[in-house]
Amino acid sequence: MGTISSRARADGSIGYTAQIRLKERGVVVFTEARTFDRRPAAQAWLDKRERELAQPGARESVKQEDPPLGDVIDRYIRESKRDLGRTKKQVLGAIKAAPIGELRCSQLKSQSYVTFAQNLEVQPQTVENYLSHLSPVVTIARPAWGYPIDEKEFADARVVLKRLGQVGKSKQRDRRPTADELDRILRHYADMEQRERAEIPMQKIIVFAMFSTRRQEEITTIEWRDYERDRVLVRDMKHPGQKVGNDTWCDLPTEAARVIEAMPKGSGPIFPFNHRSISASFTRACSFLAIEDLHFHDLRHEGTSRLFEMGLNIPHVAAVTGHRTWNSLKRYTHLRQTGDRWAKWKWLDIIAPLQEHS
Asked: Rounded to an integer, what distance in angstroms lies between the CA atom of residue 141 and that of residue 304?
């Protein structure tokens, strides 16, 4: 009645899915599955459920498939052909582990979702992210698998949470680094290099990030073969509907190209470092220097706004940043002047001196 199958996950670990299927006259009338990190745990759950279903009247009560929400989440992850991404899997895993994950489909009411959201004790935009990741699971559960989830209950819960102000979109940041802040940060890393305490060439990476408008995870994936002086190939560029295989050629401002030319030549990544280490180093530097509320991603914001301030039109800016729509691009535009505020910037000459090409 029950089987256990193993499957490699995206992170390289192995998941063990225990599945029970009940048939009547050759037709499946009930299926239930759970995924575990260890085979013995999967076997223990399988044995327990088989004993429960062997009890008198148990099969009659489960003929209509009505699994817990946690099982529905498992099936969604297991059967999805899309790369769901690390963040979405983590969020769905948290929902599965919460009390709501133990409720069966028919038990899920608007109050269930509202209670779950209120117990998260996080910012409204984070609650919105949780519900957005759960939404496709609720939406397809009934039409795809026949599970008795009422989509209207979920929709009602979102209305309630919105009216209570407990969900909301992320606030758009307008933070841009000042010339003084970048000067202090780059001098900080210069001091670290002099003391031989710098493992990552943060000066070059910071300057490249600002002028290229590239995200930190994109910077570390660009290889020498992807560089053509006036453009670079950004692999798996972030995109809400296509997280893998979205390779995009982006125009490269001359200042960013100068930084690349100043890097040691090789055959692999131009910046062969972990993007999380880059972000963590930048955060530590800002904390040490008492620079408040400045994120590494704000360098992309600065670089994008700079291009508009220099007079580039929307298509030209998008060719550099990789944005596909004006709605996604305009959140980075907080113009403060006209012209190039970084023209003749001393740090560019220090970090990436001009080179003559034959």
From this structure: 41
